[in-house]
What we know:
The protein is an all-alpha fold. The protein has a domain of 116 residues: Tetratricopeptide repeat domain (Serine Threonine Protein Phosphatase 5, Tetratricopeptide repeat, Alpha Horseshoe). Helix content is 74%, strand content 0%. It has 33 helices and no strands. The N terminus is likely disordered. GO terms for molecular function: mRNA binding. Keywords: Repeat. InterPro entries: Mito_RNA-Proc/Resp, PPR_rpt, TPR-like_helical_dom_sf.
Amino acid sequence: MYKQGLQPDEVTVGIVIQTYKAAGQVGKAEQFFKTWSSGNFGGEKHHSLYPYNALIDTYGKTGQFKEASETFDRMLSEGIVPNTVTFNTMIHICGNHGRMEEVASLMTKMEDLHCSPDTRTYNILISLHAKDNNIDEAASYFRKMKAAGLEPDMVSYRTLLYAFSLRHMVTEAEAMLIEMDKRGLEVDEHTQSAMTRMYVDVGMLEQSWSWFERFHIKGEMSSECYSANIDAFGERGHLLEAEKGFLYCQELMKLTVMEFNVMIKAYGVGKEYNKACELFNDMENYGISPDRCTYNTLIQILSTADLPHRATAYVREMQEAGLVDDCAPYSAVISSFAKLGELPMAEDLFKEMVFNGVQPDIVVFGILVNAFAEVGSLREAMDYVKAMNCAGFAGNSVIYNSLMKLYTKVGYLQEAEETYKLLQISDDGANVYSSNCMIDLYSERTMVGHAEEIFESLKQRGEANEFSFAMMLCMYKKIGQLDQASRIANEMNELGLLTDVLSFSNVIGLYALDGKLKEAVATFRQMIDSSVLPDDSTFRSLGVVLIKCGVSKEAVCKLELARREDTQCGLNAWMRALSSVVGRMML
């Protein structure tokens, strides 16, 4: 055209820009527009709306918010008045980039230019405000659309109905449905399943089933819609409804792997593990092969249910089917074995995984390191740390915390200090668990200053917990600093950190040692009132209290014998004896 002296008009320019957009060549579209608008094709500069709309739309479709905004501003500066299409595009772009203030500004500008919103404008606004979790504003635009004399279309109703469903706004959703029914508008499958889920989630099971049957009876539900509805029932443990939905789908010969997947998942939620396995094994009878999701779902269910031996069989079957593409299924079962303390089985499955060419990730290594740390097996844990490093994985906070647990169990202070430093400089930082491990190690060695430094740091961050305080109390008690120990005990009480039998026993033991007998008895009463059952350590300390108050050792032994024969009667006897001596002390 250029060689023949022909100038492209705005329609031609728009088509070229749209073509470049479809081909993903935004740069060429931009360059073409600049050449045309500057008059370089011959003739004067062009100031036409259509090509601007096309370019703004191109920027919007490719996520180039800045460029779209600049083009819009340039258009205004050149005196080109935007139309409804322009505003719709800009509102959509701004909203998708979270610029809701700019959306409001565009609406004001639209009003100033006497450019009337159309149905698409309102639909965009409803959708954007719903996504922004401003459902009231979304609903207000639906009302404004009607007030402006525009009739909401299918998109208007479906968008708002879906938003109401997600937020469990039953009254509003049902009012919207009445309107749709009056106008003969159909609910799409995506919204239909969302409505089922809404009813289920708010406990309206009867309504949810009626709603599901309304669409089932029509006979037009797709397999995807059946699976979504079955899942809605199954996720909340309504197995009867999920099974009936599955049977409906089966009767219509619409069963696919999706229905099996959600039904197996439902059995997992309902702890019907045998049924989950039976359904999986029945898939062949329907000519349906399990997919990756089927295997992963069943393996996860069995592993979580502490049934790793059964899960292992399905992992091997999945491997033979060529559906294992990462170590996740192995990881789930290894974790289950580790949780049950069956470490040889966990190791064997790990070796089998590697033999099958499945690369372990840092999660699997973390599971094994933690499992051996839990039982204090230093050599095995460190072997997996080395294997992890050889596989190219650097340690993370999970690994480091497992090592802190291990080093604390075996008493390796230097290694714990080195690991603690790594935690301190990590993204997550040293948490209360690792800090407590260090306090524990320092306390055992009466390294008071080091323990105090970490303890004070925890307190400043508001992270010191009951265990932190209890260890400091025991350390001060151990080195004879009873005043400091009593200060810690008072802090624990003030902060509400006396909840565990060990903490109560430590405080009672401290008061008994320090001669604060009334405080010891008061703490014991607090313990009973808190429904915390005392243990042998508690009664040993209380025995010291009674003996210091003049009760004979023989009498204390009788109290202890009575407790062992009948826990409740014995506890009452201890309470009477303690109340008696405290009463004498008050005189």
